[in-house]
Amino acid sequence: MSEPAVTSKYKFLFALLLILFAFKSYGIIVRHDIAPGKYEIRNNDLPAVFFLERQGIRRVCAATVIHERWAITAAHCVNETALGTAIKNGRRFAVEVGNQTREIDVVLMHPEIVNSANPEVDLALLRFRQASPIPRPIPPYDQTDEKGEVVTLVGWGYFGLGTTGRQFDDGTKRRAQNRISEANLRLQFIFDDPREVDSDSLPLEGMLGLGDSGGPALISVGNEFRLAGVAIGELGGESFSEETQGEYGSVAVYERISVHVDWIESVIESER
Length: 272
Prior knowledge:
Thrombin, subunit H; 4 helices; mainly beta; single chain
């Protein structure tokens, strides 16, 4: 049986657009005019999406099962939770996935993180010690037509309203929707204000809040979801403040999975 491992050099040098991004973990901020309970889901809903660490009532960082033996998250989440220390020290890291305990034994950073002094990718693959068909994995989205598509976001992090930004962290699992406005190297979408004339705000429009980097942006394909993006942060200009993070008009940034699908598939194939 393979020993716990992490990619060489164990780099976490995320110079990745530090001026623009607030590199914290993010959760869900909701519309002010919709009952908050409409965004809440049960822990066994979307079971392929799981949190990496529990810190008291908080759930910190998220990941998505994409294969019977693999999950994906934001690379900075590895260092932001105890996962990084555990793997670096040769230990496995236990997580709760779909009502079962599973152990992560390998973390593979995106090659750019390992090979570049200033990486511009924030992705890590997590290998489970044993494969399991449960929960059903959410495969990567491999098409390049994401712009304009509606995505579903999932997170446990800070709750808040679009009028005020983040408020408190209650560890509740929530989902929201948004529409992809940019699909270049990364995906972006805007938290539209429903009070504006001709607003594009969706019925369950939402935005990232502190608590769930690494969480998914899911595109519906038929009756199933595909993983289109992994949450890495929010654009933070001169007026950015953590206290009002997630207000209407804020812009979320996700790694675009279709850009990296060849890497993901090559890793999975090489480990079979």
